Amino acid sequence: MKLVLGYLYPSVMSQYGDRGNVLTIVKRCAWRGIDVEVDDLEVGDRIDPDRVDMLLVGGGADSHQRVVCEDMLNVKGKAIRQAVSAGAAAFAVCAGYQLWGHYYRTASGEELAGLGIFDAHTVHRAAQTGTRLDTITRAGSVRAVGNLVVEWNKAVLVGFENHGGRTYLRGGSQPLGRILAGGGNNSEDGSEGCVYRNAVGTYLHGPALPKNPALADHLIQAALSRRYGSVALEPVDDGLEVAAHQRALEQAAAKPRRWKRLWSDGVG
Ligand code: GLN
Q1: How far is the centre of ligand 1, averaged over its atoms, from the C-alpha of 165 (Å)?
Q2: Chain Cα centroid distance, residue 174
Q3: pLDDT, tens digit, 9 for 90 and up, residues 234-261
Q4: What is the Cα–Cα distance from 107 to 112, expressed in whole angstroms?
Q5: Pocket test for ligand 1, best of 18, 163, 166, 202 (most atoms within 8 A of CB)
């Protein structure tokens, strides 16, 4: 079996180690004898929606989002929507997640149009409050920064967040999970991320997938099922992943940020 993974804007949108998500998918597939072809898709590159099985996009500063948003919308947008509607798996982190919503209003108030895959929109806290980002303190005061712990399908996901944008889900759109610690979507309604078909949007950086193996396998399973019908993934030895997950949870617990409650740890 083989999967085609489209990696969006690797040279612009890979903040906080998000490239590690691609490596994780490749490795976890290789351990099961599944080949993964990784296509780096930079500005100007086109996507074949029938050929791509999984799409990954990482995070970036407002200035990075400015660089890619026109291309995301007008060069790749139609193909990304087609692939996701046809069941391709996708993992969109932070800045990428924001640009897969309807729009992102940046810290300076400029509105970057999004793909509208997630029924959500994002506004930078500085644009909401009129905070001038002229000092480190002021810039930090409008960001959600730190460990992020999320309840997902009776399991726990753990990672790191650093964003000024606050995302608001609309209507019936489904969050990825509930916040156990951290800000998540908007530090207001307790939700984190968004799910549409097999596309997952999240604020989990770190990178997220190495220490959340069940989420990585969920994406692999979805991509394989679209291409090959229902496929059972062989279990692999996740000793290291579970240890890293546990360590990250301990670190999050050591630096308490608005813990809701501690789930009896099903590793995500
Ligand atoms: N620039 C966006 C924000 O500040 C996304 C940041 C990121 O990807 N880490 O919210």
Answers
A1: 6
A2: 14
A3: 999 999 999 999 999 999 988 766 444 4
A4: 11
A5: 163
